[in-house]
Structures are given as structure tokens and as C-alpha cells.
Amino acid sequence: SISALLGSPVCSHLAATLHTLQFRYDRWVETFTEEQEQALQLLTSLQDLQFSACSSLQSLPQQLRGLSSLRTLVIFGCEKIRSLPPKESLNASLSTIIVANCSPELTENAKNLKKSDTYSAKIIVCP
């Protein structure tokens, strides 16, 4: 679960070696706590971050800038997330954002950002 993994002691042990992190089928977490967001920042080697079928999650972590190696962000089947994090909260290393089977608001938000070239990352939107 998101809560169990994002405890600072766990993240500090994984910081240098974890390249892919997938949160799947977590029905309980609605938002990230400040402590969880800070713990996530410790994962500087993280390249791929995925959220799949987190049915109660209402928003993504707001600060992903500390993830200096992050290349891919995938959001799949997260019906309550309404928007992507602001551009200034993302690291320049992020090259791909994939949004699939999500809320109409998030899908529309991603499509609009794709058109506007607001993000430097390639945005892939699947209905």
C-alpha cells in the first residue's frame, strides 16, 4: 500500500536502487500526507512511477521535482484524479506521461496540456 511503502525509513533504504515504483489496487488512500510526499522525494534513482487502479486517490503527489531520474509517469484507472501536477513541480528529466482509463477531467486536462506544449514531456492519452 502507499501508506506502508512511503515511510521514510523504507524510502531511505531504497533511494539509490529503486528504478520502478508501482502503486496498484490501493483502495484506501485518498491523498498523500506531507510525510509521504517527503519520503517520495528520497527516491532519486526512480525512473518509472505508476499509479494503477487506485480507486480512492484524488490527486497525485504535488512535488515530483526531487525525483531527478524520473522519466515516465503512468496513471491508469484512477477515476478520482482530476489533473496532472503543475509543470513547475515536475523534473525536467520526465519524458513521458501516460493517462489511460481515468476520469473525464484528467483525460481532458491531459489532452489540453498535450495541445498547449505546456509540458516538455510527451503526453499519451488513451480513453
TrEMBL record:
InterPro entries: LRR_dom_sf. This is NB-ARC domain-containing protein. The lineage of its organism: Eukaryota, Viridiplantae, Streptophyta, Embryophyta, Tracheophyta.
